[in-house]
Amino acid sequence: MSGAWQGTAPDGSVLNSIILDDGKLWLVGLLNGSPSVQVSANTEASGGSFRSSDVRYVDYGSGRFFSGALQGTYAAGSSITATLLLNGAQAGSYSLTPMPKTTFDYDRAASLSDLAGSWTSGKTRILVGANGAVQTVDSTTGCNSNGTVAPHASKKNVFNLSVTFSASPCALPGQKLDGIVVTWAAGGQSTLLATALNQSASLTLVAARQ
User: Fold this and answer.
1) Which residues on adjacent β-strands are paired with residue 84?
2) Distance (Å, rounded) from C-alpha 38 to C-alpha 134?
3) Which domain holds residue 126?
4) Would you call the peptide bond into 10 cis, given omega within 30 degrees of 0 as the criterion?
5) pLDDT tens track for 91-142
6) Which of 53, 75, 196, 205 has its CB 3.0 to 4.6 Å from that of 177, i.e. a possible disulfide?
């Protein structure tokens, strides 16, 4: 079931999902190019079925966090159908298909040269060094963060992300978030997608190379 997957949510959000070889699932929904939802979960898959009992779901529209579960079926390299349960109630059904390798090649080894450089996400500038050091600066609030990226242990085209925000005026002062980063090409433009969270906060950035 591991790989890169895509689909469309009932509200029109474009779903982009990475399922790592260890079963860790990350999913970001983008509505009109802006993050609408973030999902993370540890999945267990066997014989065409999968499940998770530790879903973390973030609704960026309301800023609310939910706990939940996933259950569904999959055909390796072909399709995923999942039902999401939040607070014990069914919250939606989703269908995913493989992301085209021409857009994102999950099986290619990660290379820091794909990330190194300067990216922008709205008023936020993201700087990635050749050594994996990361800095973000918000030109509106003056908030900044520092962290690192490193290739995931699976040796797939995914980077681990760890980032810690500075003190005030940051909305998440001193908080450390962990997640993943990927980059892909579509329409001749490079895009960076970073998503991370902790027990009480989350972050998702969609950025274009400067």
Assistant:
1) 70, 92
2) 21
3) 112-209
4) no
5) 999 999 999 999 999 999 999 999 999 999 999 999 999 999 999 999 999 9
6) 196
The answer to whether the beta carbons of residues 93 and 81 sit under 8 Å apart is yes
| Whole-angstrom distance, CA of residue 38 vs CA of residue 195 | 8
In sequence order, what DSSP letters do the residues of 93-146 get, joined into one string? EEEEEEPPTTT--TTSPP-GGGT-EEEEETTEEEEE-TTSEEEEEETTT--EEE
d(CA 210, CA 119): 5
Tell me, yes or no, whether 86 and 134 share the same domain: no
Coil, helix or strand at residue 13 = coil
Q: Which CATH number does the domain housing residue 170 bear?
A: 2.40.128.20
Question: For tokens 């999945």, what's the residue?
Answer: 43
156 secondary structure, DSSP code? S
User: Which one of 70, 98, 126 terminates a domain?
Assistant: 98
Contact 49, 72 (CB under 8 A): yes
The verdict on pTM exceeding 0.90 is yes
Residues 75 and 121 in one domain: no
Q: Count CA within 13 A, CB hemisphere, residue 57.
A: 18
Closest listed residue to residue 143, CA positions, set 161, 164, 116, 160: 164
Instruction: DSSP letter for 63, please.
Output: T
For residue 104, give the amino acid letter.
F
Residues sharing a CB contact under 8 Å with residue 175, sequence separation 6 or more, in sequence order: 164, 165, 198, 200, 201
